[in-house]
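User: quick one, fold this
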Amino acid sequence: MLVLRRNIGMKKFTSLLIGCSLALAGVALAQQPEESPGKKKKQGAEETQASPAKPGATAAKPHETAVKERGARNEPGAMNEPGAGKGRKGRQESATAQEGQPAASATPGAEQPKRGMKGRAAKTSPAPAAKTSPAPAAKTSPAPAATAAAAASATPAAAVGTQQKGQANVAAGAKKKPEPQKVQQIKAQHANFRAQPKPQQVPAVTFNQNYRIQGSERWQGPQYEVFRAYRPEWHDEGWYRSRYSRVELIGGGYYYWNNGYWYPAWGYSPSAQYYAYDAPIYVGQRAEPPDQVIADVQAELQEMGYYRGEVDGLLGPMTREALTAYQADQGLATTAVIDQPTLDSLGLAS
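Assistant:
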């Protein structure tokens, strides 16, 4: 009986000793720097309310920050300042861990916690949230290359249209020749007309005994025989006077008249050798001066819209171009000179 009581007393003592040991172990564990889960949850909620995380930012967990801090302190050669030797990012993470705040993410524009602010939470006012307003709808205007291509394609069409319109106007004008009264009025205006040499505006041609009127071999009919057979000749004054009854100075050069045509008198006077064109000029049997006939033709072609130059009595390039256009519209041989069919068509033949 006595032995039984001793065994029961020993068991109670052993149980008491074990309970005291467990209590001491619990006190020791309670003194560890680990924070209680409730406190962590409470602190995490406060941090979430104070510093709302930006979309896409990843905050470091508290225990991971603590591990980083311990690693920085245990690193050989570490300085007293937390995170020393690890650069700005290391110092930022260590300071954040000491203050009990989550490590800030490397989001551009986020405000970094200030150094040396121990004992109180660093101010981490969140950056203003980016506006999520939708981007303005892109304009559906064509690309510059397409626009340039469209403009390039439109310009020639417009130019062609304008040209066709101009040609139609010219053709319409060609059908509306001046009335006979208007033609007589034009001839009366140039009854005393005298052309003046203008080498700056209408360059002079030079003598060439091998010169032939271009295309004259294709002009069919006796009315063009003079142009097909024309050959420039160089003679003195006596030679011309002995053969032709009329030799006159007209527009800076001497011409001789023969059977309805005026011809350049090459060599008649070396001081008067200005000729705007080397070809015969048809005037009819009345032998009107060639500059007057040229002026009449210019004025009438001007009335119809073919000629846009000055009425100067010189058979220059602009006048020949107007003659060519008129002759083509009238179905005549495009001689670019004043011949009998053209003068008859204009109603100027005498």
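User: anything notable?
Assistant: Residues 144-175 form the longest helix (32 residues).
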